[in-house]
């Protein structure tokens, strides 16, 4: 209250508007309050993600084994690098944004426009990169089986290397017709059929004695864990997946009821079902923020070109949209940590 | 200080902060790839030190983004407190509740006679 009274004494205009008790204009203050509420929304999502992860801490998919792709490097397993690149792109677009705000303070129209343009390009490149990441995630690479208990089993060879379904499963001459709307009696249809049926995978597994099953279970590599011969060294140096012996593997494969390829909102070949849900939801919501940020940036960019802010004698609008843009970057810093690093 | 017309160019500081954020991100990626055992194998409040390092570095980056890029350092302290304290308090609260409960559920699953992962 003290602040309000002091300001009021200065301007003698307590109720008529025009007061700025926090030293920020109405628009800027509202942008800050919007950011607070949006930050809480993202915190809620990330906390829910943390909840599910802590709940399934022993069998959560290992990010280093899921996000291994890098453009133009086919077949090379490069965890972390691509998402690090995306992070740099977003940080850099944040820098160009703050440079635009800085140029705005000096009323340099051309400079503001140039930096805004760079920011927009950075944002578009980031959204494009995210789309590529999603494509790889949805498409999947190795394929897996889901057991009747709902857990995901993957295939490895004797050396503990992952084996793709397409590398050992042969299609049998069996009839599998996808149920579509037009063939259904009522509003009936089914999801796209996977490349192979469960029976085909089971038959192929029988004739490949060198194959073993890898479960969702994770070991941390403590001394007791390392004494366990079932562990498989993974891409993530500290976390090891459990590999069953042949007899146990056969039981597991016999238990299978679904072939899972790639990821959707119901199940994914990487492991826990919630993993894909949270990935889609949080990175999707963030990507939506980036996209709307690009749209807003573009509108402000056009206004800069038209000279709107020259006429107003202030570039505060650039500052406000800048706040939003930095917030999007801020959220990504946290998403990056909790999805890819931790 | 906070009046819009007295701004001087801050480009030097902006590039400095950019350098800082880049270095911290590089360190994070580097640690994420080599994952040193002396950090991963030691726990502090039921989380390994490597994760603590990641989280602290992330908060460090967040501080610079908010203070330098969003120019929180130039705002009045009433605005700073209104925004930052609110978020920090509510986030800590929700994290505490959810993570403690999740850990409890994990224990229940782990120690129960119900076989759920098969």
Q: What class would the helix/strand composition of chain A place it in? A: alpha+beta
CATH fold description of the largest domain in chain A: Four Helix Bundle (Hemerythrin (Met), subunit A)
Q: Which geometry of chain A do the CA atoms define?
A: elongated
- How far apart, in Å, are the first and last alpha carbons of chain B? 64 Å
Q: Give the overall average pLDDT of chain B.
A: 86
Say how many strands of chain A there are: 6
- Please state roughly what percent of the residues of chain A sit in beta strands, choosing from under 5%, 5-15%, 15-25%, 25-35%, 35-45% or over 45%: 5-15%
The main β sheet of chain B shows up as: 2 strands, antiparallel
Q: What's the arrangement of strands in the largest beta sheet of chain B?
A: 1-2
Shape of chain B: flat
Our count of domains of chain B comes out at: 2
Radius of gyration of chain B: 20 Å
How many individual β-strands of chain B? 2
Strand order of the largest sheet of chain A: 4-5-3-2-1-6
- Estimate the strand proportion of chain B: under 5%
- Rounded mean pLDDT of chain A is 87
Membrane topology (chain B): Multi-pass membrane protein
Main location (chain B): membrane
Pfam families (chain B): COX4_pro
Transmembrane segments (chain B): 14-34, 49-69, 81-100
